[in-house]
């Protein structure tokens, strides 16, 4: 079971670049599917958010082991795709996530730091 995740969030497309944004979105979905099929990640989920006035328009959550997520983030393909996305959409961001069994690790780090600072 996946214990690590990668949260990839984005906002509205750059004005005038909407069609290119859709191309990059579809390219990323296909790539994530290939990664899953090849066993390089466990799974992924994509969500488009309803209009709400905020900066976050949608996100992908990629799930895998810590080793899988680390390898993904270090890959040239990931760097290329995230660079393309950052040029097409506003408020683009990538953040590591603790999920499933990894939650205990993340909470352990938090608890240790809380204990040290209080």
CATH first level: which class?
A: Alpha Beta
Strand content: 15-25%
Give the number of helices: 4
Proportion of residues in helical segments: 40-55%
Q: Which architecture does the CATH hierarchy give at level 2?
A: 2-Layer Sandwich
Order of strands in the sheet with the most strands? 2-3-1-4
Structural class, from secondary structure content? alpha+beta
Structurally, the number of domains stands at 1
Main beta sheet: 4 strands, antiparallel
Features of the shown structure:
118 residues, alpha+beta, Alpha-Beta Plaits, 4 helices, 4 strands, 22% strand, globular
Write the layout of secondary structure elements.
Elements: E1 4-10, H1 18-37, E2 43-48, E3 58-64, H2 66-74, H3 76-88, E4 93-98, H4 102-117
Antiparallel strand pairs: 1-3, 1-4, 2-3
Description:
This protein is of the alpha+beta class. The protein has helices at residues 18-37, 66-74, 76-88, 102-117, and strands spanning 4-10, 43-48, 58-64, 93-98. It contains 4 helices and 4 strands; from the N terminus they run E-H-E-E-H-H-E-H. Strands 2-3-1-4 form a 4-stranded antiparallel β-sheet. The chain is globular and about 50 Å long. The relative contact order is 0.27.
Précis, in short:
The protein has helices spanning 18-37, 66-74, 76-88, 102-117; strands at 4-10, 43-48, 58-64, 93-98.
